[in-house]
Write a structure and sequence with these properties.
alpha/beta, globular, Rossmann fold, about 425 residues, binds glutamic acid, 16 helices, 5-stranded mixed sheet
Amino acid sequence: MSYIEPAPIVDKDNPLDSMMSRFDEAVRLLGIDEEMYYILKVPARQVVVGLPITMDNGKIKVFEGYRVIHSNILGPAKGGIRFAPDVNLDEIKALAAWMTWKCAVVDIPYGGAKGGIACNPREMSAGEMERLVRTYTNAMLSVFGPDRDIPAPDMGTGPREMAWLMDEYSKAYGMTINAVVTGKPLVLGGSLGRVEATGRGVMVCTMTGLEKLRINPYKATCAVQGFGNVGSHAANLLDERGVKILAISDLSGAYYCQKGIDIAKAMEYSAKNNNSLEGIDKAFGYDKISNEELLTLQVDVLVPAAKEDVIDEEIAKKLQCRLIVEGANGPTVADADPIINEKGIMAVPDILANAGGVTVSYFEWVQNRLGYKWTLERINRRSDRIMKDAFDRVYQTSLDYKVSLRIAAYIVAIDKVAKTYKYRGGY
Ligand code: GLU
């Protein structure tokens, strides 16, 4: 087997395999040589640490923490920190590589990284979380840095955790270093617009996709899977632009309303209900449907904004939408791609669709380094333009190479990183 044969998919639920098979296809189309293939494939650095934490019951529990720097060819590595029970090194490796491609697609000067800890934040007290974040930060003092590797929130973490991280890092160096992390609370040098940024980018990609498909947004319908930071803001911003959101979901279940879900009210409900939509069907008279029903609804747009591997071959066969905009990282397994393409569904891939978050993270880092604060108007204008330009670049590449938007996005990204490496040179 030659080195650029697609890697066999041993475990369809492994996001690393999902990522690698798309990477291999794009590499083949670009005609990248063997040396460059391995330079781009093998992560630059993988750090695994044991984190002994005193739990509230007085007992010490040891957590495993990861940070994978996939690439620092384009600049300092960038990527979130995920706290979830099923976090593992393979998943973090895939997510780190996706960050490399994501930053390259939107043309911001960062490499890609990802961190994670296998834990269940829903079952941990604020004190336990704080000790975990501070211990993890200490273990990563030589990895993180404003010019080295800049973490951010991901699933299970948010501004609160980023504040602890910034504080712990700053204390270790004896001065305030706020540019070491993004997604901080506003008062600590966070950026306006960062919280909504990923959802806003999903909205820009949806509006641009609808335009390409000549669908009037005021007549369009949409289903959004996941009502966390990405899904809720994407739904809200689309709702504001006339798109009718027929269904939403979270861990508690999926909810449908033929007249359209009132997103502002749903956000209010979830915020008051411990970040859960549980019981919203009874409160507002919505129908409770299954997760599969939500994904396969007859809608114009499907926004998977929950987690990896939710659209597999079986779901793909039943899809009835015309446009998929991937708010989550890796929501579609590689084997589902050909089915989606055959059905003529336009799928805006994760590395483009959810890049609004890291784009505003970049603005946060720039503002921290300037010691200056931008207005929300400037941030939204600039991030919308970056997202729109990236969409157009990927769309044009898909026409040039006659490939899907997903493969086109990988082509844009891999080409940029490979060319940059050639200029920088190796040993
Ligand atoms: N965790 C987010 C992502 O997957 C944001 C990363 C960042 O802002 O650095 O894109």
